[in-house]
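Typical record was shown:
=====
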Amino acid sequence: MYSLVRECAADSIPVAVTCRVLNVSTSGYYAWRDRPESPRAQRNREITKTIRTIHEESRGTYGAPRVHAEPVLGLGERVNRKRVERLMREAGLQGLYRRRIRRGRANPATEEDLVQRRFAVTGRDRLWLTDITEHPTQEGKLYCAAVMDAYSRRVIGWSMDARQDTDLVVNALAMTVARRNPLPRSTILHSDHGTQYTSWAFGKRLRDAGLLGSMGTVGDCYDNSMMESLWATMQLELLDSRAWKTRDELSTGIFEWIECWYNPRRRHSSIGMRSPATFEGLNLPSSTRG
């Protein structure tokens, strides 16, 4: 009750009026207000301030697990996860969570599928995944093709356009190859059976880069589940956060989300609560760092 009195006083509501309405003692309130804070209360106030900052910097997307990881891994502080959960509840803070979707049984793998739903790899540039997503604006749809490294979950190439054609995926692949410069026949690029990925132009670009092409079964989300997860995260944290007026506005938003948030900063539970860029940096051979 006294906490509520203090909040009302901060809003210029007389203490005596609030105490009368809440049926509490005015002298008791002042005694409570002037009482020195316990070390634990002081620590809770400090942690709550840190939690608010982390939650705000995450664009309001982080729940307790990632908020807890930030001071522990990022700042080297010791704080209990249950304490973070409790303080977040008291502060009225929560993350964004997507509903789990029930899916049907997976289809059998085909001869073209070199991955066969085995996405665990032991190093970067061994398995790349690619797919296309779309989102409406008031001008019309914007299409985005992206390439992800399965090792670190890092988006290593992307392309956006008003048309969902072969150039869209070829440009995303071109950016990826220029950035990573993979060794010939050492990297698998896994996609679906979309016409963009089965086109002659994309196949030629794949061969010229020395990549091993792989395709999942038709209409089976299990065969590219990591890309499906990426799109679902972007949908929740960015695309559905507002109505987009123009394609340029949305493309700028996607660029900023990928390059300024997702790759360098967003923590992933599957890679030890590190961001993709941090995870790669920690696991690069010493000869390639710098």
About this structure: The mean pLDDT is 86. The chain has two domains: 2-91, 127-284. Strands lie at 127-136, 141-149, 154-161, 188-191, 212-215.
